[in-house]
Specification:
Radius of gyration: 22 Å
CATH topology of the largest domain: Rossmann fold
Strand content: 5-15%
Shape: elongated
Helix content: 40-55%
Largest sheet: 5 strands, parallel
CATH architecture of the largest domain: 3-Layer(aba) Sandwich
CATH superfamily of the largest domain: NAD(P)-binding Rossmann-like Domain
Number of strands: 7
Number of domains: 2
Strand order of the largest sheet: 3-2-1-4-5
Length: 237
């Protein structure tokens, strides 16, 4: 690769969405949620849907009835009916701030920053260390979708498209590949080589249209249809 191509590659990497995607083992961390209204409920649902064994402390002066109903099914979620205090931050790994009070949200963020905690402030992308993105889930397969905080609505629509069009058979493929991997001997390089051979048939260019090719064409059509719908909604509504 010549120097010009390298420079172009660096330029591409320095533009657009610069978030680094990670998947947290929240069941091994401790989460504080401040606020238990509609926004707090939305954040809580996002966490519990993807990681139901997460240990969560919720601090709020009042609790939405729907949130109370939801938490009744999760013993690791604890409710604290009180005003927020700085001491509430102690012992937590990350904080989700959803009070609906911008002044209080900023105060909590400042206190959490002093303690080097990871922070999500509802509806304030510039104040967040991380986002709760839209997640597509098919068994053990998870796909995270991010618009860099620009449009959660677009992320939500894309999630619906992928969730509908990705076949459930993908999870079966994952389970079969895991079993195959566990039977392989040799070093890491050998295992990678054998797994590459095993999955090559899924993306070959024959007329049989293997699973991944079927998925790609179906998703491509669905994504274009979804984007067209989003454009129409933005233009006319």
């Amino acid at each position: 690769m010549n120097s010009q191509n390298k420079n172009n590659k660096v330029l591409e990497n320095n533009t657009g969405n610069q978030l680094f995607p990670v998947f947290l083992k929240l069941n091994q961390l401790k989460v504080l949620l401040v606020g238990a209204g509609n926004i707090g409920l939305e954040k809580l649902e996002a966490v519990l849907t993807n990681s139901p064994d997460t240990q969560i402390n919720i601090v709020a002066e009042s609790f939405l009835p729907k949130l109370l109903q939801l938490t009744g099914n999760y013993p690791r979620v604890k409710l604290h009916s009180k005003r927020f205090e700085a001491a509430d931050l102690e012992g937590h790994d990350l904080v989700i701030i959803a009070t609906g009070d911008n002044i209080l949200n900023a105060e909590i963020r400042s206190l959490a920053r002093q303690r080097h905690l990871l922070i999500n402030v509802a509806d304030k992308p510039d104040l967040c260390d991380f986002y709760l993105g839209s997640i597509v889930k098919k068994g053990d397969l998870k796909i995270g979708i991010s618009t860099n905080g620009k449009s959660p609505t677009v992320a939500k629509r894309l999630k619906e498209i992928f969730q509908t069009n990705l076949p459930d058979e993908l999870d079966l493929t994952l389970q079969q590949m895991n079993k195959l991997r566990n039977t392989l001997g040799g070093d890491f390089a050998h295992k990678v080589k054998e797994l590459n051979k095993a999955t090559a048939s899924l993306v070959n260019h024959s007329n049989e249209k293997p699973l991944f090719r079927k998925i790609s064409w179906k998703l491509l059509a669905a994504v274009f249809a979804g984007i067209s719908l989003i454009v129409i909604m933005v233009k006319y509504y």
